[in-house]
Design brief:
This protein is α+β, with helices and mostly antiparallel strands. The protein is built from eleven helices and 14 strands. Strand 8 (about 155-165) and strand 9 form a beta hairpin.
Length: about 350
C-alpha cells in the first residue's frame, strides 16, 4: 500500500463534499422530509415495500412502562440517523428493560432521560419517538439485525455496507454495487472504532438491490444511502440517509480509486449497469433460495470463518443454474449468486 491512497480531503471529492454538506443542512425540502422515518416509512409502504410495523408514536416517554407492547421492540427518535438514539428493548419486568444496543439494564425513567439527551444532540425542540416491531433477520446471529446500506446514485448502486452491531466494536464488510466483496487495505480502511466482518450475501439480495435502485429515484438527490434489513419475509426498509455516518465520520475511508468512481457516479458517469440490473422485481421474487434453516446454518458458518458454509451456498445456486435455460434471467441470477458465494469461499480458504 502506498502512502496517501486513503487521504483525499473532502474538498477534493464531489461525493465527500456532498455528504458533509448534507450533514450540516439538507439540500432540499424533500430530502429533509424523507430523512425523517415518520415520513419515509408511510411513503415507502405506499410504493409496495415492507416497513417495520409501527406500534406507536409518542411525544412524551413518561408512560412507556404502561403501554401494551410486545416484550421485544424498537424505540427510536423520529428525526435521527445512523442508528443514533435507537434502542432495542426487551422487557424484563414492570418498568425494567434490557437494551440490546447498549447492553445495559434500564428503567423507563432512565430510557426517557437518555432519549431526551439524544434528542437535544439533534437540536430537536419538539422531539417525537417511534415504537416499532423488531425485525427478525435471516442470519439469526444476535438480537440486532444486520444493516445493509446501499449507496445509490440516481438508481445505480455503487456500494453496499454490511454492519453487524451485535459486537463491540461493530463489524463491517463492504461490497461493490453487485455484492462482490471489496478488499480491506486496497479499497478501504477501517478506523479503530470498527473491526472487519466476514461478508455475507443476504438471502434476498436480488430483491434488496431492486428496491435500493427504485427508492433512490425518489430521493431527490444525486446520492442517498438506502438502508435495508433482510427478514425471512423479504427486504424491510430502514431509512434514507443522505449523510451516512460511516462515511462522514470516516469509520471507513475509501481509496482514491473508489472515490474516483463515486465522484463519477455523482455526475452520471461510470460503467453502464449490467444485464441483471434491469431484471423485474417479479422475477427476483420468484427465485428459489435455501430454506431459512439451511441459510442460517450455511451463512452463519461462513460468517464465523467457515469456508464450508460458503461452499454449500455456492453449490446450492450452481445446481439451480444448471437446471435452468442458459438464456433466462433465473439462470443468470443463480449463476451470479453461486459465483459470489464461491468468491467468499475462496477468501475464507485463503485466510486459513
Amino acid at each position: 500500500m502506498q502512502a496517501g491512497e486513503f487521504n483525499r480531503s473532502r474538498s477534493n471529492s464531489v461525493f465527500l463534499s456532498f455528504v458533509a454538506e448534507e450533514f450540516r443542512e439538507r439540500g432540499t425540502a424533500r430530502r429533509a422530509a424523507l430523512a425523517q422515518k415518520i415520513v419515509s416509512h408511510p411513503f415507502v409502504a405506499s410504493l409496495g415495500m415492507k416497513v417495520p410495523q409501527r406500534l406507536g408514536v409518542l411525544d412524551d416517554l413518561s408512560g412507556l412502562a404502561d403501554m401494551d407492547l410486545p416484550d421485544l421492540f424498537v424505540l427510536k427518535l423520529a428525526k435521527s440517523w445512523s442508528s443514533r438514539g435507537v434502542m432495542i428493548l426487551e422487557r424484563t419486568g414492570y418498568n425494567k428493560y434490557f437494551d440490546h444496543m447498549a447492553l445495559e439494564n434500564l428503567s423507563s425513567e432512565a430510557i426517557k432521560h437518555l432519549q431526551e439527551d439524544k434528542a437535544a444532540s439533534f437540536a430537536s425542540a419538539s422531539p417525537s419517538w417511534i415504537i416499532e416491531e423488531l425485525v427478525h433477520h435471516t442470519l439469526g446471529l444476535g438480537a440486532i439485525p444486520f444493516d445493509y446500506k446501499f449507496y445509490c446514485f440516481r438508481g445505480r448502486v455503487g456500494l453496499v455496507v454490511q454492519i453487524d452491531r451485535n459486537t463491540g466494536p461493530v463489524k463491517i464488510a463492504l461490497f461493490d454495487g453487485d455484492f462482490k466483496p471489496l478488499k480491506l487495505g486496497r479499497d478501504y480502511v477501517l478506523a479503530e472504532t470498527a473491526r472487519p466482518g466476514q461478508p455475507v450475501i443476504p438471502l434476498h439480495a436480488p430483491e434488496m438491490l431492486w428496491w435500493a435502485q427504485r427508492l433512490s429515484l425518489e430521493a431527490d438527490s444525486p446520492f442517498v444511502s438506502v438502508d435495508l434489513l433482510d427478514s425471512p419475509q423479504g427486504p424491510i426498509f430502514g431509512e434514507f440517509t443522505y449523510s451516512p455516518g460511516g462515511t462522514h465520520r470516516r469509520i471507513f475511508t475509501f481509496s482514491h480509486a473508489m472515490l474516483d468512481r463515486f465522484d463519477s457516479l455523482m455526475s452520471g458517469g461510470g460503467n453502464m449497469p449490467d444485464q441483471l440490473s434491469g431484471t423485474l422485481l417479479e422475477v427476483r421474487r420468484a427465485l428459489v433460495h435455501p430454506d431459512g434453516l439451511s441459510y442460517r446454518a450455511w451463512a452463519g458458518f461462513a460468517y464465523a470463518g467457515g469456508a464450508r458454509g460458503a461452499e454449500r451456498l455456492h453449490s446450492f445456486y450452481k445446481d439451480l443454474a444448471t437446471a435452468e435455460d442458459e438464456a433466462g434471467d433465473r439462470h443468470l441470477w443463480y449463476r451470479h449468486l453461486g459465483a459470489r458465494w464461491a468468491g467468499i469461499r475462496d477468501r475464507l480458504r485463503q485466510a486459513k
